[in-house]
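Researcher: Go.
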Amino acid sequence: MLVISATAAIWFLPLVLVVCLWVCFTDMKYMRILNKAVIVLFAIFVVIGPFVLPMEVYAWRYVQMLAVLVAGIALNAGGAVGAGDAKFAAAAAPFIHLGDLRFVMALFAATLLAAFASHRLVRATSLRKLAPDWKSWQSGSRFPMGLALAGTLGLYLLLGALYGATPG
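Model: Structure:
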């Protein structure tokens, strides 16, 4: 059982999943996570959050976002992650219940391995001809991290909807 409220996850999931798919697509095609996608993700939390989270919890999630943003800026300055990755991670942070942090880190590790292996496998085969103009195929050692970041958030909310805490 996850700590995230199943109700919150159910309300967030449909809209967040659309943004996650958008991020996966744009990062694979252009090797960029668009600012528009990050803003939409943040707006989903701003609009839906007050209705599905207690106000104190809702307010503290902004602190989580700020902490992840500061860490992301530092990692970006050091060349460890792209700016879009850092911004997406910050916008995704409020959706994560702190009680699920260990689970989310393990989920991210598994999703990252699966995304990397899948991307490299498709890139090395004729399957890449299905989308021949995608920049990620010619990116050398660079990897579209949005695939793993968005995949993790989408999977977390899906699992939260299925196995999250229920009132009562």
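Model: Helices lie at 6-30, 35-52, 55-77, 83-92, 101-123, 146-163.
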